[in-house]
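In the previous chapter we treated chains in isolation. Here, by contrast, the input contains two separate entities that must be folded as one system, with a combined length of 990 residues.
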Amino acid sequence: MMKNYNRLKTVFARISRLQYAQRILMWDEAVMMPEGAQEARAHTVATLNRTIHRMLTNRKVKTLIDKARDEDRLSSWDVVNLNIMEKKYNKAACIPLKLTEESTRVMIRCEQAWRTLRQQNNWQDFIPYLDQTFRFVREIAERESQVTHLSPYDALLDKYAEGFGQSDIDDIFLKLKQFLPALVTQIRGKQQSDTICVARGRFGIEKQKALGLKVMQALQFDFKRGRLDVSHHPFCSGGPSDVRITTRYSEDEFISSLFGICHETGHAIYEQGLPAEWLEQPIGQIDNMVMHESQSLLVEMDVCRSKAFIEYLIPLIQDEFGTQAAFTVENLYKYVTRVKPGLIRVDADEVTYPLHIILRYELEKALMSGDLQLQDLPSAWNERMAQYFDLSTLNNDKDGVMQDVHWASGAFGYFPAYTLGRLMAAQLFDTFRQMHGQFSESVRHGQFQVLTQWLNKNVHSLAASLPVNDLLINVTGAALDPQYFLAHIQRRYLD
Amino acid sequence: MMKNYNRLKTVFARISRLQYAQRILMWDEAVMMPEGAQEARAHTVATLNRTIHRMLTNRKVKTLIDKARDEDRLSSWDVVNLNIMEKKYNKAACIPLKLTEESTRVMIRCEQAWRTLRQQNNWQDFIPYLDQTFRFVREIAERESQVTHLSPYDALLDKYAEGFGQSDIDDIFLKLKQFLPALVTQIRGKQQSDTICVARGRFGIEKQKALGLKVMQALQFDFKRGRLDVSHHPFCSGGPSDVRITTRYSEDEFISSLFGICHETGHAIYEQGLPAEWLEQPIGQIDNMVMHESQSLLVEMDVCRSKAFIEYLIPLIQDEFGTQAAFTVENLYKYVTRVKPGLIRVDADEVTYPLHIILRYELEKALMSGDLQLQDLPSAWNERMAQYFDLSTLNNDKDGVMQDVHWASGAFGYFPAYTLGRLMAAQLFDTFRQMHGQFSESVRHGQFQVLTQWLNKNVHSLAASLPVNDLLINVTGAALDPQYFLAHIQRRYLD
């Protein structure tokens, strides 16, 4: 009855298995791999890319899709699954195999060059690498845009933030730009008189890890299907039955590592909550980074940076590190909600964070439209740093245009997903909060099941069966709207 | 000039990259993977197998091989490389893709069943799994034997011990059977009056690891291209630029873990010493387990269980664990050269070990010839245990026929490689010893370079460019001969 559709499912299951292999190799590279294996590993990842590209663009896939359209008994999930398959096929089929291979190679080299040259604050030598990468990004975007009938920049956005185009984001970010700078000033004024006591001492890594594991457990991380390790930057990789999250530890300071774990646990419980029977199918996988970041940021920002969570945390901290002046609810809460403009995105507080994203978004757009040339990036960056943060990155490209790996690895169009995800998190949490007025009380006692069950029912278990805004409308009654985030900022920082 | 040959090299390089991915996934499964990922991981390994099989058996490969035969400028290594490619193609092409997939699935299931049922000493429930596996092994062997013109059991041996057929092994093992039992009796008599002091205390894992790393360093393990971790059974996996060795620790006893590290380091320095420019080609890879075991056993048995090595080791042990009666050269040397027949192969001393292999070899042969039926394995095992060791495994299949993973995972024909490798190690080391009379003195001082350089020149750097016996004749002047091993036993245990 569904012979062709079932054959397609087999093809896409195979692709998902190879992608799982890739993600474990990526995890291994960041967590375990000896440095001498870099070249061999890069070749292996490229070969897997090539293999996946060939499987996906096999002409039989197109024929099967066309035939499957006419088959009976397709459920509504099957139909969505088939649509995603077709979109994946179309977007891949317009990229010749050679272009996939060359661009992969160039982007791996560019990222490797970035690692070295960023440390050296050497923008000049980085330009040719980034230029090559950007040319491939543009060529791929142009090819995809012919298939998807989107503009080239929208084609990039479609990869990471499907459902949001440049005009949607322009509107949303405009609103943030209208309100955020004033909010930052107000909050800074209010926080000016706060004195914050910084935790002192050596915080042993084993104890930090024990603390992190307790929090993960409370947040319903399933250790039979995942683990926690150490890498240079925290991330979440692997697959739904094998979620690998990482953090990094410093013995001087344990809070940022702990909140890294909270963030990645949000990603992890999303993966672990995806519907078991669809894990190997496109509909069962979350490529949309707006969705994914909404789950990590809801857990990190809305839950873990709340005062109730700090109340839950203090005894756990004291269990590991004893008592000291810094370990009071009032003090630690001030510490984790401190607003302070800075150069580095990943260190930013939740209020200034969107301005970092808006800066990058505006530059990406200008690069893609041709209004900005690559070599002028540092000065354009510096200009906007002055405008949004009153800070300068002049002669400091290391902490300016070179600070993120995204562009170096070819991920143009990625950044907006962070802020869209944050807005989505605030909107989802607003609905949840109104339905569960006693949640703060549960948080104080380390009880998060009511939240994780709600997320599972309303988000995780739906996987990719709905477009982002449809899901949001179903759950919250509205499409993505920055007002929930702005109201949250008002409530947490100014009321 | 070598267009077709170079295209072949590209195909085989891709295959080698996917095999590297498989080996890292295998390492990850044993060292890192959460248990809930078993099924997903098995699917992924099977999909990689399938992908490799398809790449290898693509008809273009056959055409390219035929055309490459006529190309100019092929070096002698190129010609050998091409021959190995052709053999790999022929052996793979006779196995339909479906058979590869089904047999992989069956063997993974059988190995998983073995893990549970072995613990339960449950042979009866294991029979149907092993039967299915054995049927596939036989079918594949029969198909291969039509291509290679070897008997089915020789086709199995060809996979792990290329260069040695049943008639060669019959001769070699006959000689061992003639001499070993009497040697065991003699040695046991001589050792009867020895009193061995066993090390007491808790041996912390961090200290054991530090000790292991020092020994690896001394044995010239390159940590830029490899690492040491923990798994249930020690192994060596990964690839030449990314060698993953493992051991297991018990806080009660550190010697077996340490010698596990020595053994795996022998495998590792072999991999790390393979010629850099051929790593991705068949000629640059060691599939032959006789070769591989010769290197691990030379390091473990000939070097690390020598009295000179124990002299080197004692101060290192004392650095980590202080002094005690057990930590004298005489005592520890007695401990690591104690000969005692036992049920378990992996715990056996080097004198009784070959008898464990001969037992398995005789049963495998009988299974393949049809002289023995699967259900009669336990009684046949028990009979030979009585004959060779004067021990019984009656109602103890856990420590009898079910003790090893090999048959459960479909690796019939593998066992002889251990003993052939041991004989080869003894023969190589005999030549080395005669050329470097002062080596024991170097060992006492932890200086192993003269050995590793010699192995690199005479074995490692040659990779698979020569058949095992040709390599042995070049280096030692003779084909594989058990006399060197028997002389070593006489010298170490009876002189």
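The longest strand of chain B covers residues 242-247. DSSP finds 20 helices and three strands in chain B. Compare these points with the single-chain example from earlier in the chapter.
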